[in-house]
Amino acid sequence: MSSQEELPVVEGVDGDELADLLGDSVIGREEHLNAPGFVVRPDEVQNALRTLRDEAGFDHLSMLTAQDYEDRYESIYHLKKYDDPTQEASVVVPTPLDAPTHQTAEPVYRAAEWHEREAYDLVGIDYDGNPDLRRILLPETWQGHPLSRNYDQDRPQIVSFNEHKNPIEGDHLDEDSDTMFLNIGPHHPATHGVLHLKTTLDGEQVADVDPDIGYLHRCEEQMAQNGTYRHQIMPYPDRWDYASAGLLNEWAYARVAEDLNDLDVPEYAQIIRTMGAELCRIASHLLALGTFCLDIYGDFTAIFMYSMRDREKVQNILEDLTGQRMMFNYFRLGGVVWDIPEPREEFFEKTRDFLNDLPPTLEEYHDLITSNEILQIRTIDTGILEPEVAKQYGVTGPIARASGIDYDLRRDDPYGYYDQLDWNVVTEDGCDNYARLLVRMREVEESAKIIEQCVELLEDWPEDEREIQSNVPRTLKPEADTEVYRAVEGAKGELGIYIRADGTDKPGRFKIRSPCFCNLSALHEMSEGEYIPDLVATLGSLDVILGEVDR
């Protein structure tokens, strides 16, 4: 743990006032680089969190980090405010090695259920009172917790087959009910990857849906922990959300590592980063658009092919910029790996041609899609997610903005060059599948505005001031026990990373906050009482990428 005196007080949050507010629940203080930390007793978790939520306005449980130290287990609840995400606080809960148990946060934040399940699964902390504390990434029969110090990697693992049981049997089943258990996935095109939906139907309506994840768990966090800050971690983020969002993922790591190591980024490189990130956002939204319509219409339609055609144009520009089409590995700590490709005029002309063709293309999409009666019937008033429910589950990105939540880290927690540009945050109040489609389509327009302004700046930038990377030490060793959480606005929402330094050139702990993971946890709230086609449409509207969900 790092003491309050060793690090500066975080601007914008008065740690002393919050400590006074929490009272006897606090048994210690920390200062993380991004937020004041309050160490609370294991039996005071709910009181502390409820106080911070109701009296201090911390209504967003962004992430939970669980760690196994030599002398204790520890959970860190990373809290923010939807109205101002620069206002942050961390609630730290230590537990002894022989009894890693403390209160669940689930009654205060519904998002805690899935976060605590993952921490229990991988680290082994028991969250007393969690309504569904079972493994989430590994099979239920798995022996041991892989991120705990006493885990035996050589222990044989035997996964037995269990008959599927009706998850609502004994709770909702009666003589008049007509229930049926239905497996959707894991190998099904409508699940957008290896996702298994354990669905219970009551007649033709969804009575319960339980997303079964973990089929694509690739230990990305653990691989990052084994890599050096300077060179070996950056290739991994491209593989989290692999649907053209690579530069957005890279920026999440770049932002947290640059803050941790106090690294500057030249203004010119920030503009290149901003342009590349918005190209990735457009490519990601076009893929979401095409696959969503594929789910709705149930056929390999022209709409899907049109979106792939336009996405390829973006991919071509990104390939010119980075040299790759998916796994870009273009960002570097302190900047980017190289400048705009030569001849620069051709690159800018190609980018402008795409931007000029975009307005009539989007108008064509609206003619084909948003005014289509079939799509409207399938999407309007289905998959309802009320804003307060969305906040309870930590939902962010287009999903939250389609429920009227005006939350975008590009504006609310500025980074890169976003605060120097003219653009708008897109919101809709429909709270349904149709609103989520509209938000993504309108966000493509805003991304195009950002890219156009970046191109103009880059064209006019003096040649002798085109600095693409600051002077970064060959070996980075941040001070031991320095802790920081930072996030960017990914294509799917808040993509964050927590790092705890241990004094070496590798992270002591590396934890990824996946927006898809949090968004998917709310699926049952959006689907209960609806029909199977509505469930498929709702899942498609979430635009989940399982590589990021499972990590």
Give a description of the structure:
The chain is of the alpha+beta class and about 550 residues long. The chain is about 35% helix and about 15% strand. The protein has 17 helices and 15 strands. The chain has a five-stranded mixed β-sheet, covered by helices on one side. Strands 8-9-10 form a three-stranded antiparallel β-sheet. The N terminus is likely disordered. It is a peripheral membrane protein.
Morphology: globular
Distance between the termini: 27 Å
Q: What percentage of amino acids are in beta strands?
A: 15-25%
Rg on CA atoms, Å: 23 Å
The structural class is alpha+beta
Please estimate the helix content.
25-40%
**Strands in their spatial order, largest beta sheet:** 1-2-5-4-3
Number of helices: 17
**How can the largest sheet be summarized?**
5 strands, mixed
Which regions have little confidence, pLDDT < 50, spanning 5+ residues? 1-11
Please provide the count of β strands.
15
Oligomer: single chain
Q: Can you give the mean pLDDT?
A: 89
Record the SSE blueprint:
Blueprint (H helix, E strand, L loop, with lengths): L14 H8 L3 E6 L4 E5 L4 H10 L5 E9 L4 E8 L7 E8 L5 E3 L8 H11 L3 E3 L50 E6 L11 E7 L2 E8 L7 H6 L20 H15 L6 H31 L4 H21 L8 E2 L2 E2 L7 H27 L2 H7 L7 H6 L4 H5 L7 H4 L20 H28 L22 E7 L4 E8 L5 E7 L1 H6 L2 H5 L4 H11 L3 H5 L1
Parallel strand pairs: 2-5, 6-7
Antiparallel strand pairs: 1-2, 3-4, 4-5, 8-9, 9-10, 11-12, 13-14, 14-15
Helix pairs in contact: 5-6, 6-7, 6-13, 6-16, 7-8, 8-13, 13-16
Main location: membrane
Membrane topology: Peripheral membrane protein
Subunit structure: NDH-1 is composed of 13 different subunits. Subunits NuoB, CD, E, F, and G constitute the peripheral sector of the complex.
